[in-house]
Design goal:
The chain is mostly helical. The protein is built from twelve helices and three strands.
Length: 314
């Protein structure tokens, strides 16, 4: 019996429907997502390279930005290639191992990005509210510990959810009405009761969202209070402009994640869920370098020097 169950597990496959309900849009969507992925890869890898080669950017905030760019690149790489393949191939199947692997890696990157945004908010809080103590507070040891903590929690979160997903039973071919193997889609095609896995996912996700948003909101409130006390109008405008762009990215990311977990499980909401999934898996990874870094003068200047480098020109 154990051998039969094992063989059944290896025969399980998933079918990612993606955007198959729009056959006339397969090629246009392929070109759009290919462009987005190319821009995402170029921007994030360029950001990492610029920070590595420019000594002026060896500061805590750019240290965090380099990790955010790395997360966005690998997150997009985990999801987009399979999406592109399914847009041009008739066979939209993915193996059980492939689906679980994609789910495991995607969980890690989502959770790490969630808390990396919170860490960056804390960095801006220290820089804005305690500028004279910034170098003392944001030491290399603290920065490394904060980054390590986000990765460790991301791995623990992903391992926990993956363990409970693997404890479920699956039968034959399972049709997933999405382009990515995410938790709600996988457990919805399970042959066994997924209530424990769903409840665990809900509890941990609420904890992640509440804790990270509490850090972000409390730090930005402190920043705004400090800025309002400034006598310099130019300094206030610059700070508000920077914070507004950062809060826009945070709102898009967290708003999409919360929205996806609040959408009713109905057939009418399938397209909305797919569009929401596109935003937090594909689009946000492209927008983050632009919002967080490429608007910065130091980064722009470094990028310009990199593009004008003789070896690169050749």
């Amino acid at each position: 019996m154990l051998l039969a169950e094992t063989n059944q597990t290896f025969e399980v496959t998933f079918i990612l429907l993606g955007f198959s309900e729009f056959p006339d849009l397969q090629v246009p969507l392929f070109l759009v997502f290919l462009t987005i992925y190319t821009v995402t890869a170029v921007r994030n890898l360029s950001m990492i390279l610029i920070i590595r080669i420019n000594p002026k950017l060896h500061t805590p905030i750019y240290f965090f930005l380099s990790h955010l760019s790395s997360i966005d690149f690998w997150y997009s790489t985990t999801v987009t290639p399979k999406l592109l393949e399914n847009l041009v191939m008739e066979d939209r199947t993915i193996s059980f191992t492939g689906c679980i692997t994609q789910f495991f890696l995607a969980c890690i990157f989502v959770v790490v990005e969630t808390f990396m945004l919170a860490v960056m908010s804390y960095d801006w809080f220290v820089a804005g509210c305690h500028p004279l103590l910034y170098t003392v507070i944001m030491s290399q040891k603290l920065c490394a510990s904060l980054v390590a903590g986000t990765y460790i929690w991301g791995i623990v979160y992903s391992l926990t959810l993956t363990y409970f997903v693997l404890a479920l039973s699956f039968c034959g071919s399972n049709v997933i009405s999405n382009f990515v193997c995410e938790h709600s889609a996988i457990v919805s095609v399970s042959c066994s009761d997924p209530s424990v896995s769903q409840m665990l996912c809900f509890i941990i996700t609420i904890f992640d969202e509440v804790s990270s948003l509490f850090i972000i909101l409390s730090t930005y409130i402190s920043i705004f209070v400090t800025v309002m006390k400034m006598s310099s109008t130019g300094g206030c405008q610059k700070t508000f402009s920077t914070c507004t762009s950062h809060l826009t990215a945070i709102t898009i990311f967290h708003g999409t994640v919360l929205f996806l977990y609040c959408v009713p499980n109905s057939k009418n909401s399938c397209l909305i869920v797919k569009v929401g999934s596109v935003f937090y898996t594909v689009v946000i990874s492209m927008l983050n370098p632009l919002i967080y870094s490429l608007r910065n003068k130091d980064v722009k200047e470094s990028f310009r020097k990199l593009m004008n480098h003789p070896k690169l020109s050749c």
